Amino acid sequence: MQESNTLNDELVRAETGIRHQMERYAETGPYKLNPDSKKVDKVIKSLAKRKLKDGHQYCPCRMLSGNNEIDSKIVCPCEFHVEEIEKDDICSCDLFVSPNYKSISSQIQ
Ligand code: SF4
């Protein structure tokens, strides 16, 4: 019980740190956090789990190769998000979006 509480505390701390980092990145950079806060929460939780499990906040939607140099490219914000957002207005995990991004629900309304 004590061990699971400690793990949960570590996860919450990791989530808080990653959330601050991603908010700062969105405030100072060209991209925004997805307006769907549930998606943001989910990705941040997944990033925190990867950080505790694998040592870094590796992209939750990509596999580790085992090669540190290659894997460093998928530490969030990854090397690929710029190209993905330029192309689709959203990164492959749905965390960051372009300022022009329109969510599907806002397109339907
Ligand atoms: S795809 Fe998005 S969430 Fe995944 S690492 Fe890149 S920027 Fe982060």
Report the structural category: mainly alpha
What is the CATH topology?
Answer: Ferredoxin Thioredoxin Reductase
The proportion of residues forming helix, as a percent range, comes to: 55-70%
CATH hierarchy class name: Alpha Beta
Beta-strand percentage? under 5%
Structure description:
Helices cover 57% and strands 4% of the residues. It is built from 5 helices and 2 strands; from the N terminus they run H-E-H-H-H-E-H. It has helices spanning 2-28, 37-54, 68-71, 81-88, 104-108, and strands at residues 32-33, 96-97. Strands 1-2 form a two-stranded antiparallel sheet. It is globular and about 45 Å long. It binds iron/sulfur cluster. Iron/sulfur cluster (SF4) is lined by residues 43, 59, 61, 74, 76-78, 80-81, 91-93, 95-96.
Condensed summary:
This protein has a single domain (2-108), classed as Ferredoxin Thioredoxin Reductase.
